[in-house]
Amino acid sequence: MSGPPKAQLNQSLIDGIATLQELALSSDPIGCRALARRLNMDPTRVNRLLQTLEHIGIARKTAKRKYAP
Question: Which residues cross the membrane (predicted)?
Fold first, then answer.
């Protein structure tokens, strides 16, 4: 039982990647509440993740306040 310690998981990173994956799989732009329902996450958390993805240039917000990759 003496091996390297297991990596500590970062839930924020996991949630961000899941959000990005679901956004990329969506055929049309999607709103944060619909995305939150798909991911079974809190809409406020998904909104913050989407805003972060938009800030770094991975997602964009449409004129109808929906998001696309």
Answer: none
